[in-house]
Amino acid sequence: MTLRSKSLFAADPHIQSRKRADARFKLYGLAAILAGLALLAVLLGTVIGNGLGAFQQSYLTLEVELLESKLDKNGNRDIEEIKKVTTFGYDPLLTAAAERLIETQNIQTDLRAKDIAKLLSKSAVSDLRDFVVADTSRIGRTVSFDFLVNARVDGYLKGRVTRESIADDKMISAEQLDAVDQLVAAGALVKRFNLDFILGSDASDQRPEAAGIGTAMLGSLAMMLVVLVLTLPVGVSASIYLEEFAPKNRLTDLIEVNISNLAAVPSIVFGILGLAVFINILHLPMSAPLVGGLVLSLMTLPTIIISSRAAMKSVPPSIRDAALGVGASRMQAVFHHVLPLAAPGILTGTIIGLAQALGETAPLLLIGMVGFIASTTPETMGDALLAPNSALPAQIFEWAKRADPAFYERAWGGIIVLLVFLVAMNAVAILLRRRFERRW
Amino acid sequence: MSASKISARACNVFYGDTHAIKGVNVDIGSKSVTAFIGPSGCGKSTFLRCLNRMNDTIDTCRVEGTITLDGENIYDPRVDPVTLRARVGMVFQKPNPFPKSIFDNVAYGPKIHGMAKSKSDLRDIVENALRRAAIWDEVKDRLDAPGTGLSGGQQQRLCIARAIATQPEVLLMDEPCSALDPIATFQIEELIDDLAKNISVVIVTHSMQQAARVSQKTAFFHLGELVEFGDTDDIFTNPSDPRTESYITGRIG
Ligand SMILES: Nc1ncnc2c1ncn2[C@@H]1O[C@H](COP(=O)(O)OP(=O)(O)OP(=O)(O)O)[C@@H](O)[C@H]1O
Ligand SMILES: [Mg+2]
Questions:
Q1: What is the pLDDT of residues A357-401, one digit of tens each?
Q2: SS3 state of residue A105
Q3: Is residue A12 in a domain?
Q4: B92 and chain A: CB distance < 8 Å anywhere?
Q5: What domains are defined for chain B?
Q6: Ligand with minimal distance to B20 CA
Q7: Range name among A74-78, A172-176, A225-229, B110-114 with the lowest pLDDT average
Q8: Does residue A408 lie within any of the structural domains?
């Protein structure tokens, strides 16, 4: 038995040691949080440092004379005939425009106009062709057009490509870089924000500067829609049944254990299941977001069921008693009282499940969404679900494994988009939760 | 007092292996007040919950014997517990208001039973119930405030208001005054007197005085058995069982 000191002011050694233990524990906690924050800062710093470049692109402004003699030989503006002019037909226009650029900006170079035109992206001609086909009245006029420059030049402006690093590069020469320096000084070649990265489609290996993540984003969005539409009603009904109506016996115990186990099954297993069932047996199209969504739904369902059940279990039984006590049916008790109280928890579980699904790459590998070059933007809702597409993480993976370092930058940029997507989803969840909580 | 409203015959209740109620026979009269008394854990709440089948919600709970309401067995497979509970209302031992507004708490029952023809009808029902439960003056200015934000005693009266708003034929009250001050207790006892003009009321209480004041019949439970059941005056003045006598005089409990 310890003797207590009489005065409240006297320091008791026992209490002092307890106080020190308190302080130590607080310190550990604080240190853990600081370490976590530091890691987060490193992560965000790296992602932003590497990926921000993808949101900017360099453009060269050229005055192009859209010669009628090249584009519309008969002069009758027949759209079918104009469409027949291939990109080769546009090449001379660009060379001529480059020639004019050298003269007007007074560029000192030994290079021929053709070599200056090579600074442009390989997609420059087709961009110009699309521009003309979109509005044939432009033929015969001289238009000012911002062309994407190729990834080397763009990398030079961003500091990724240096004069040393291009020593053995066949794609670009030191003379061309000299010209680039002068063009930048003249204001003809500028680096600016590139909306096409966010909205555009993937491009082939030779044109990293034209690649965008928008189409893959639509793929992910379509999959999330499928997952949400399938898993939320199914998951919530399953958990309502299991939690509120199912008798507690061996069978329901077995079901419960299996659902928990399903949540821990590696996602690639769901992928191969999807391949076997949805594609080989049901003959759904390969690489379609619908199939991706179905596979991810299988993966997400256990998560949603588990969290919904936990949310409903945490609603005090006295609330159910109260409802039943005034003569409500079990359905009424669940829908009027239990579900509204469980809604925030169900929402949180759903968002966690969706976030997991959004970042999942492995199952998409097996149904052909990884590696698919998503180069055309789907036009209709049906296309968005059934036409082959990629997904955000799949697109990032695809870029990261391509050779050109310009794609590497885009992979980081894709990570930023993915993270923003996640943050947006969480924000929606928080807003919804607030709404529900206000209604208690 | 007239014919019995509820009769229990050879009623046994088990929680898993625990035998909580042992062969209870009791008749609860219509338009009267019956009090259940007995030491803590003797099964008063358990038996009360049998009378409107609230024990159905407890998985381990098993009820044997017959309990009839107006001569019909309430445990008959044809009986829908929802219909039964609409006729036999309940005030629980622990106040359990819905986490909704005070108004919605009281309005919920009348709403699901379609008792109000219009919004103003509903408002009248709610006001009347709150008035009778002696809480109207305290909440009339904040009917939109959450019921869970009230004090313990206020919550108890809110739950009473909720139970009487559906106009049951039998009202089961499990220690309805446990958290109330003497004035509120008096008001609730007046309510019980008033209710008993039309319906039968069963009240569980730990207060002998309260049982003596409000009830016409008293049942004394001990360790799951119904030891004694009879006119309240007889039980308190002339108990036939020694256990009853020691309980009401404060020697066991
Ligand atoms: N849900 C339950 N599961 C298992 N046993 C229970 C359950 N509810 C009550 N019991 C048991 O049944 C017996 C009677 O409990 P009951 O709640 O009916 O007592 P009571 O008379 O209402 O007591 P009090 O006056 O304290 O409220 C007790 O022994 C208790 O342990
Ligand atoms: Mg009790």
A1: 999 988 998 888 887 777 778 888 888 888 888 899 999 999 998
A2: helix
A3: no
A4: yes
A5: 4-98+164-248 (3.40.50.300)
A6: 1
A7: A74-78
A8: yes
